[in-house]
Amino acid sequence: MQYFAAETFDALDAFRGLLLSHSRFEIILQGLCEQAVAAIPGADMAGVTLLHHDAANPETAARSDSRVSDIDADQYRVNEGPCLEAARTGRIVCVHVEDAAARWPLFAAAASEAGVRSFLSAPLDVDSEHAGSLNIYSFGDHGFSDIDEVLVTVLVTAVEVAVWESRHTADAREESGNLRRAMETRACIEQAKGIVMAVRGITADAAFAALVEQSQRENVRVSVLAERTVTSVVAVPL
Do 119 and 96 form a contact (C-beta atoms < 8 A)? Predict the structure, then answer.
C-alpha cells in the first residue's frame, strides 16, 4: 500500500490543532474518526466504541460514516468483533475478512455483506468508568500494516493525554476554587469572632463558642451566621 507522508502529516497536524482548540469529549472523538480516515491509507470509515463498565450495552460514540453504526450494531448484537475485543482486552486487533470469519463468524458474515474486508481496532483508555476502542474499516482486501497500527496508536494516545489533561485541569480549578472559598469563609468567621469579642468583652475561644452555640440554636452553619454578623455591622451607618 502506498503511503503519502504529506497527507498523513497533514491529518495528524489537523488533529493536533483540534485537541488544542477543543475540550469537549464528543468533538474530540469525532475529530479522531475523521482524521484517522485521512491519516491511514486504505481506511474508508472509522468509529469509536465506548463500553460502560456498569452497563451491558456498548455504544458508538462517534463515526466518520453513517454505515459505521450498522457495522458496530452487528458486533454489539452478537457480542463479538474487533471493536469489542480491542476494548475488552486492551490490545490492538488487526485482521482481514478471512481471519475475521474464523474468529467471529456471526459478525464477519454481516460485515462481509456490508462490503467491509479489513479491520483495525485500537484500545482507547478513557477513564475508570469506560473502556473504548478506535475502529478502522476498509472495503479493500489489503488488510492493515504495522505502520497503520503505529498511526492509530499515536492517535488514541493523543486523545488519552488530552482527556487526562482536561480532567486534571478541571480538578485543579475545582480544588483552587474550594480552597479560595474555604479561605474566604475562614476570614469571615474570624471577623465575626472579633465583633463578638468586642461587643461582649470575651476571649477569642469564647467568641467562637458563642457563634457555634447560636448556629446550633438557629440551625444554620457557622459560616452563614458569621457572614450575617459581619454584614449587620458593615450595614450600620457611621
Answer: yes
192: nearest Cα among 155, 225, 238, 146:
225
Secondary structure letter of residue 133 according to DSSP:
E
Q: For domain 183-234, is the CATH number 1.20.140.10?
A: no
Q: In this predicted model, what pLDDT tens digit does every residue of 2-45 receive, in sequence order?
A: 555 566 656 666 666 666 566 677 888 888 888 889 888 889 99
Tell whether the model's pLDDT for residue 172 goes beyond 50.
no
227: CB partners within 8 A, 6+ apart: 188, 192
User: Any idea which fold 5-171 has?
Assistant: Beta-Lactamase (3.30.450)
Are 225 and 196 in contact by the 8 Å Cβ rule? The answer is no
Placement of cell 491509507 in the chain? 41
The C-alpha atoms of residue 217 and residue 237 are separated, in whole angstroms, by 29
Domain regions of the chain by residue span: 5-171, 183-234
How many residues can be counted in the chain?
238
- Residue 210 C-alpha cell reads as 458563642
What digits encode the pLDDT tens for the residues 64-73? Answer: 999 999 999 9
The predicted model gives 175-182 an average pLDDT of 59
